[in-house]
Amino acid sequence: MAILVSITSSFLNRYEIKNVILHMQKEKAKERIILGIDPGTAVLGYGIIREQGNNISLITMGVVKMGHLDDHALKLQRIFKKTTALIEEYKPDSVALEAPFYGKNIQVMLKLGRAQGVAMAAALNFDIPIFEYAPRKIKQSVTGNGNATKEQVAGMLKSLLKFNESPEFLDATDGLAVAVCHSFQKNATSETGKSYSGWSAFVKDNEKRIK
Predict the structure, then answer these.
(1) Is the pTM of this model over 0.90?
(2) Domains of the chain: residue spans and CATH
(3) Most exposed: 163, 167, 179, 194, by fewest CB within 10 Å?
């Protein structure tokens, strides 16, 4: 009888351990790391969050300064290298970027487009899905106001992600806002954003831009 109880107890312990492991694996499967980028050629902002179920938490945020570089090509190289380094260190499941806004200064738009393209290339080089969101959509998702200021976006992110420090450059919280915006989307391929799963998808959707 004692032997039977011992065997039964051992079986139950193994069963419970197996259930715990399966539960942990399921929880882990729900986890997602998102890298958000606010492209720029003077300062590029980025933020990385962990999404687990309905909860999101801050991993890190920062900026890439390029004001000291006079050559535009060197700035693009720095963006590519830094984005690559972030991907290698934090291994994001997806990369979200702020789409360049349409302004009157064509040269500024061109430079911002190049900065975004280089960051995209770094992500696509790792076969990581990339997503684009308009500035107004990002502000609307984070604050509920598509015309919110940078300070208002930063304030809402502080409350949402529970951090107190204020970054030297608000570009950091802008990049963080892109990541949070992506996390909030129930359907990331809806009209509110574009997504690409690799080079072939990007090229197919941008044939007119690369001919």
Answers:
(1) no
(2) 27-181 (3.30.420.10)
(3) 163
